[in-house]
Amino acid sequence: MELWYSEKHTEDVKFSIKVNNHLFTGQSDFQRVDVFESDEFGKFLTLDGLMMVTEKDEFIYHDMICHVPMATNPNIKNVLVIGGGDGGTVRELTRYPSIEKIHMVEIDKMVVDVSREFLPITSSKLDDTRVTLFYEDGIEFVKNKPNTYDLILVDSTDPIGPGEGLFTREFYRNCFEALTEEGILVNQNESPYYEGDAREMIRASQKVKEIFPIAKVYQFHMPTYPSGHWLFGFASKKYDPIKDFNPSKWEEFGLKTKYYNTDIHVGSFMLPTYVKEMIESG
Ligand code: SAM
């Protein structure tokens, strides 16, 4: 009998992957955690039945959350990752010898444990000596840490369950305070395509815009997320991701990347008309 993983992307749309094995299922204090294995996407992790990471397309998300801010300000030294329990974001950050300290605050230890067991592809650098893991709520963690981080990456779940508070004005305000004067925030910004996701995307980008002098949105192609069209928010006190972007400076790091390159960096901020209009009209 065939086994399929199926996820509702809207009331009328489902996305399905044929799976060979259901490798893990567990209920943590925060969410249901599952790992499946498939021919097309390799192993993949879901939380409360929503796709988080697959072996095949994780490089796209992790390249784009990490290299866009790092190429905008190559002098970043202290980084905070909020969420990101699969470890893929930390893995990309550890490729920069210039980064001195990486704090990762993940609310759910089960996600990290399961990723270490089943997804070494993403979790392989969680033991880097520069990395400190905190099993705490990122919403609380970021409070009262003025002028501490050069970069905050919000690698969160959707705005439901434990991730809900990571999409609030108060949280973005606390991130602003926790950043140094050179600071950059990159946050999960959902998809512009389906109405429900687009509403969250507009709300998140409006709130960030009220707090940060520079606030933009950039896009990438994520095959296993609803509609395949996904956005990150980029916000900063000082750096514009296009005007202050110096491709040759980033190229000096000599990193080989599979999705990110210096053309994509610029192109990802060029948004389709309907997305621009949504963001402008709020
Ligand atoms: N790339 C993924 C995506 O967009 O679907 C996100 C992956 S990562 C596994 C998301 C993590 O955020 C989860 O492990 C979840 O436990 C964590 N998370 C959710 N809310 C959180 C909070 N308030 N504080 C810290 N971590 C949180």
From TrEMBL:
Claim: Transferase is one of the keywords in the record: yes
InterPro entries according to UniProt: PABS, PABS_CS, SAM-dependent_MTases_sf, Spermi_synthase, Spermidine_synt_N, Spermidine_synt_N_sf
Chain positions recorded as spermidine binding sites: H62, D86, D155, S156, T157, D158
Catalytic reaction annotation: S-adenosyl 3-(methylsulfanyl)propylamine + putrescine = S-methyl-5'-thioadenosine + spermidine + H(+)
EC number: 2.5.1.16
Domain of life: Bacteria
Binding residue positions for S-methyl-5'-thioadenosine: Q31, E106, D137, G138, P162
Pathway(s) this gene product operates in, as recorded in its UniProt entry: Amine and polyamine biosynthesis; spermidine biosynthesis; spermidine from putrescine: step 1/1
GO biological process, one term: spermidine biosynthetic process
Keywords: Polyamine biosynthesis, Spermidine biosynthesis, Transferase
Gene3D superfamilies: Spermidine synthase, tetramerisation domain (2.30.140.10), Vaccinia Virus protein VP39 (3.40.50.150)
Molecular functions per Gene Ontology: spermidine synthase activity
Keyword Transferase: yes
Residue numbers annotated as active site: D155
Job of this protein: Catalyzes the irreversible transfer of a propylamine group from the amino donor S-adenosylmethioninamine (decarboxy-AdoMet) to putrescine (1,4-diaminobutane) to yield spermidine.
Assembly mode: Homodimer or homotetramer.
Family of the protein in this entry: Belongs to the spermidine/spermine synthase family.
PANTHER family, alphabetized: SPERMIDINE SYNTHASE, SPERMIDINE/SPERMINE SYNTHASE
Name of the protein described by the UniProt record: Polyamine aminopropyltransferase
Organism, scientific name: Anaeromicrobium sediminis
Native organism taxonomy: Bacteria, Bacillati, Bacillota, Clostridia, Peptostreptococcales
